[in-house]
Amino acid sequence: MKIKGKAYRTIWLAPDGWSVEVIDQTRLPHEFSVIPLKSAEDAARAILSMQVRGAPLIGATAAYGLAMAIRQDASDEAIDKAVEFLAKQRPTAINLRWALEEMRRAVQNLPREERVAAAYKRAADICDEDVETCRLIGVHGKALIDDIARTKGNGEKIEVLTHCNAGWLACVDWGTATSPIYQAHDAGVPLHVWVDETRPRNQGASLTAYELGSHGVPHTIVVDNAGGHLMQHGKVDLVIVGTDRVAANGDVANKIGTYLKALAAKDNNVPFYVALPHSTIDWALQEGLSIPIEERSADEVLKMPGRLADGSVVTVEIAAPGSPAGNPAFDVTPARLVTGFITERGVCPATREGLLSLYPERAGE
Fold first, then answer.
1. Architecture of domain 2-128
2. Which part of the chain has CATH 1.20.120.420?
3. Neighbouring-strand partners of residue 86
4. Phi, psi of 178 (to 5 degrees)
5. 109 annotated among ligand-binding-site residues
């Protein structure tokens, strides 16, 4: 996608041929900053601090982190240690573990002298595959938007609501939930996006709005609790969100607040779709309430960064002094509230049978 007319991915190999560069998402939307990652420790720190975030991008970053670790020590013991170190940084997103296991499989049976090249190749392939996967998610999701456009007719705007950031900033390019939006917009379909602010880290207000605006997509930021009100008044045609992990039965873990949007959508007969790549499906997990939910720092709730009139960016306290805060980063939306999944292979019901209709090779798991 483009920032000020220049196309960017969210992660790329640096000119030295072995380190990588990423967009520091903690600086957005006030500052566009590119930072280098030169070790597995750098990659882990970027993942934990959310300089990179979003399930697919976390996986891609971890893949390159492991490649850099293998460059330092290609032994089986060092690889196993690096995999476990990187995997523990964010427990909810399954893509992190998926990417690391893909990397381990790519090198484990090779002679040590061949492992570095194989690791960097697999990391690059993971990134390229994510771009194509997200593009295809957009193709299938755009068909849903086209159907609504035909129903509404007369060139009326399609109103889409999304939560958190499942855009190109959360992936390598295109995004999951945003890919259908970008493709519909680029094809001339009139649409408008309601962007939940997504407290406490404000990924909607700071990231989704930033990238939609950079791409020229009409949008409006709303507070998290406005979604139900908008649906009651007929101002939402469909909801599209991303996900960090989908259980085999179709339950969905996504940014905290997603469950409430799904409840409101169900009550108002608004289609609620979840866009996801195959790497986000946890076939070994039978139901969503078993998904580990990351508890993040209370400071994210009690403090907020912002830009002052002089352009400086500061962090301020926003809550009653001395009050404690809880900060579960995700919630689980039951499959019964999900209209369907948008994947790179097509659209399916949010059930085990629906998922297996697109991924029949996983039937024995």
1. Up-down Bundle (1.20)
2. 2-128
3. none
4. -85, -20
5. no
Q: Where in the chain is the domain with CATH 3.40.50.10470?
A: 138-362
Is residue 23 within 8 A of residue 53, CB to CB? The reply is no
Judge whether 352 is annotated as a binding position. Answer: no
For 277-300, the pLDDT digits (tens) are: 999 999 999 999 999 999 999 999
- Residue 293 CA to residue 314 CA, distance in Å, equals 29
Give the list of residues 6+ apart from residue 82 with CB closer than 8 angstroms, or none: 40, 65, 66, 69, 70
Q: Please list, in sequence order, all residues whose beta carbon lies within 8 angstroms of the beta carbon of residue 361, skipping any fewer than 6 positions away.
A: none
Question: What is the Cα–Cα distance from 256 to 320, expressed in whole angstroms?
Answer: 22
Helix axes 76-87, 40-48, angle to 10 degrees: 10
Which token pair is 136? Answer: 């295809």
Note the pTM of the prediction, 2 decimals.
0.93
In angstroms, the Cα distances linking 114 to 1, 69, 143, 343 are: 34, 14, 44, 34
Active site residues: 244
What's the start-to-end Cα distance of the chain, in Å?
36
254 appears as a binding residue in the annotation = yes
Alpha-carbon gap, residue 248 to 277, rounded angstroms: 14
Identify the residue whose tokens are 């019901």.
Answer: 349
* Residue whose pair of structure tokens reads 């523990």 in the numeric block: 88
Please list, in sequence order, all residues whose beta carbon lies within 8 angstroms of the beta carbon of residue 180, skipping any fewer than 6 positions away. 137, 138, 140, 141, 142, 144, 145, 240, 275, 342
Pick the CATH number of 138-362 from 3.40.50.10470, 3.10.180.10, 3.40.50.720, 3.40.190.170: 3.40.50.10470
pLDDT tens, residue by residue, 5-58: 888 999 999 999 999 999 999 999 999 999 999 999 999 999 999 999 988 999
